[in-house]
């Protein structure tokens, strides 16, 4: 006769069999840290403004040394107007007008390109230095975080918004305006809207918001000085503020891009890329921005200014 197979000890002792061992736990998944963009556009804008200013001074209409013109023999001829005519150490009004300064009457006569060209001109060396220091302080960080394409579009469109606002508030057509301040205030406005729409990723929300508002208020207060085109500041700030809701959206806290998730890895409680209120801000701001530009440009083309003697404003 054959032998009976042995009885497992757990059955003899009345204990159930041991459960199988669980599979080894997967290592915790951590999405990669985003790499900042390489900032090259802001330094390029910085250099372009200095080259434009040097060209402006080279072409400046300075009569002679006997007229108290400050002459600097660099590349042949760089001439600055007398201090009593231009305290910012810069060119004359006719030179700025000839090279593309903003003047409402000329814009209405068909020279629409002045709405953009004026943001590359400056009323003097002091004006240029103040704007370029602000550009480096504000623009470098924004370009590293959001890339050259969005910051470049933000800079130019904000400058255009400042130019349109400057023309609309100059009902007599007596202002000759130059400067990149409208575009720079657009960057400040975009920083504010970026902070509002991406508030969930900031730790010290109230402190960050109040600090930025204080900085903006201090910069806007400079516009109340004589011969400063504060309307261009306000127009650029508003354009940048609404454009920031469109261009500077960040993913909400906890979002993971699907391309960084390993195959077969199940992420629990996966979040959407943006919150609902971010989409509301984006489309509402885009509608306001388009309506404002269309209305402002249309009003600028329909109205006509009164003849008067021009004077220079810097922005």
Automatic annotation (TrEMBL):
TM segment ranges: 37-59, 148-168, 180-201, 207-225, 232-249, 280-298
Top-level division of the source organism's lineage: Eukaryota
Coiled coil: none
Domain Peptidase S54 rhomboid as annotated: residue spans: 110-248
Region (Disordered): 1-24
Keyword tRNA-binding: no
Entry keyword annotation includes Hydrolase: yes
Membrane topology type: Multi-pass membrane protein
InterPro entries in the record: Peptidase_S54_rhomboid-like (IPR002610), Peptidase_S54_rhomboid_dom (IPR022764), Rhomboid-like_sf (IPR035952)
Pfam families in UniProt: Rhomboid (PF01694)
Broad class of enzyme this protein falls into: hydrolase
Function description: Serine protease involved in intramembrane proteolysis.
Family, per entry: Belongs to the peptidase S54 family.
UniProt-recorded name of the protein: RHOMBOID-like protein
Species whose genome carries this gene: Brassica rapa subsp. trilocularis
Gene: A06p002270.1_BraROA
């Amino acid at each position: 006769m054959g032998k009976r197979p042995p009885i497992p000890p757990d059955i003899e002792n009345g204990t159930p069999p041991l459960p199988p061992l669980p599979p080894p736990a997967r290592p915790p998944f951590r999405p990669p840290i985003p790499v900042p963009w390489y900032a090259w556009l802001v330094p390029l804008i910085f250099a372009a403004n200095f080259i434009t200013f040097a060209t402006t001074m080279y072409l400046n209409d300075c009569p002679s040394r006997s007229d108290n013109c400050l002459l600097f023999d660099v590349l042949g001829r760089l001439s600055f107007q007398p201090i009593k005519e231009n305290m910012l150490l810069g060119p004359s009004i006719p030179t700025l007008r000839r090279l593309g300064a903003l003047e409402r009457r000329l814009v209405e006569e068909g020279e629409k390109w002045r709405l953009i060209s004026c943001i590359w001109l400056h009323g003097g060396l002091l004006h240029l230095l103040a704007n370029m220091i602000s550009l480096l302080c504000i623009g470098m960080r924004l370009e590293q975080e959001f890339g050259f394409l969005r910051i470049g579009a933000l800079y130019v469109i904000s400058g255009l918004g400042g130019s349109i606002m400057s023309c609309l508030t100059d009902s007599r057509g007596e202002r000759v305006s130059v400067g990149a301040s409208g575009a720079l205030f657009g960057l400040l406005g975009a920083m504010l809207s970026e902070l509002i729409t991406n508030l969930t990723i900031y730790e010290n929300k109230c402190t960050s918001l109040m600090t930025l508002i204080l900085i903006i208020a201090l910069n806007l207060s400079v516009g109340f000085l004589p011969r400063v085109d504060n309307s261009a500041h306000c127009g650029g700030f508003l354009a940048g503020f609404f454009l920031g809701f469109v261009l500077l959206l960040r993913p909400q806290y906890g979002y993971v891009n699907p391309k960084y998730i390993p195959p077969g890895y199940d992420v629990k409680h996966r979040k959407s890329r943006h919150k609902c209120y971010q989409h509301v801000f984006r489309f509402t701001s885009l509608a306001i921005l388009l309506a404002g530009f269309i209305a402002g440009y249309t009003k600028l083309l329909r109205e006509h200014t009164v003849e008067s003697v021009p004077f220079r404003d810097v922005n």
